[in-house]
Amino acid sequence: MASITMNNVVKTYPDGFTAVKGIDMEIADGEFVILVGPSGCGKSTLLRMIVGLEDITDGEMRIADEVVNDKAPRDRDLAMVFQNYALYPHLTVYENIAFPLRLAKGKFTDQEIDERVRRASTLLELDEHLERKPANLSGGQRQRVAMGRAIVRQAQAFLFDEPLSNLDAKLRGQMRTEIARLQRTLATTTVYVTHDQTEAMTLGDRVCVLRHGEIQQMASPRGLYEQP
Ligand code: ADP
Ligand code: ADP
Questions:
Q1: Whether pLDDT at 10 is above 70
Q2: SS3 helix, strand, coil % of the chain, rounded to 5?
């Protein structure tokens, strides 16, 4: 687990457009922060700068008190879940979840991998589906496998980019409950981008409203609701 701190973080794209205009934000160890705001306000850009997929033009990004501005994504020890959770179709659920650990060649023994995969699959209620292929799973089960891949790494923080936006309303509700339960169990620092009001108001400890690359409001869901 780790805190995430931004000091005057700026992103100007090569075409000269400044998408993020000097953001100061402090996310505590174990905190769950939701990023909301209209399309184009800079949510994805901010998330991508935390993960390291996008360079920071100015300012400072710290993870667990360490400046990561020049650190490659693979050295940041973060786990990202996208809306288009690309699972490997030819691999079983078990191997899909194990994949990030197998990728870190030699770092984990088969026994360690097995323990981690089984812990994640129990947490996500995937125990009965470990030998199946993604094509034979429901949308919600596939999304859970994608989360399993994030959990299994025991990363310092989770980053979600609209993870539920491709699911139907009923599944979204179920997965929302699932994510809330996971957060209570794992208490991992989380930054979560969404368009969905219900997700914003029910999942986060705090909600950050972005507008034109600036923080318009940042408060608890209740505090946000009570502000004019
Ligand atoms: P959001 O995720 O809130 O929809 P984005 O972070 O994707 O917003 O984009 C913020 C702004 O930056 C938008 O105006 C978008 O057009 C612009 N933008 C995103 N990526 C690039 C890029 N590679 N080059 C130039 N402008 C970009
Ligand atoms: P989202 O709203 O989910 O961020 P977008 O359609 O805005 O999705 O962006 C999809 C991809 O296109 C991203 O990789 C983003 O960086 C890039 N992009 C977005 N806007 C621009 C832009 N104005 N110029 C170049 N690339 C862009």
A1: yes
A2: 40, 25, 35
| Mutation test residue for ligand 2: of 44, 47, 196, 210, the one with most atoms within 8 Å of CB | 44
15 lines ligand 1 (CB under 6 A): yes
Q: Given a cut of 80, is residue 225 above it in pLDDT? A: no
State whether the beta carbon of 44 lies less than 6 angstroms from ligand 2: yes
Q: Which whole number is the average pLDDT over 30-38?
A: 95
Taking residues 162-185, report their average pLDDT. 86
Of the chain, the percentage scoring pLDDT greater than 70 comes to 99
Please check whether residue 215 is in contact with residue 34, taking contact to mean a CB–CB distance below 8 angstroms.
Answer: no
Nearest CA to ligand 1 atom 5: 42
Is residue 40 lining ligand 1, measured as CB closer than 6 Å? yes
Quote the pLDDT of residue 63.
96
What is the predicted ipTM? 0.73
pLDDT tier, 23 (very low <50, low <70, confident <90, very high otherwise): very high
Mutational test site, ligand 1, from 17, 191, 214, max ligand atoms within 8 Å of CB: 17
Query: What are the residues whose beta carbons fall under 8 Å from the beta carbon of 72, sequence distance 6 or more?
Result: 52
* Ligand showing the shortest atom-to-Cα distance for residue 11: 1
Nearest CA to ligand 2 atom 3: 44
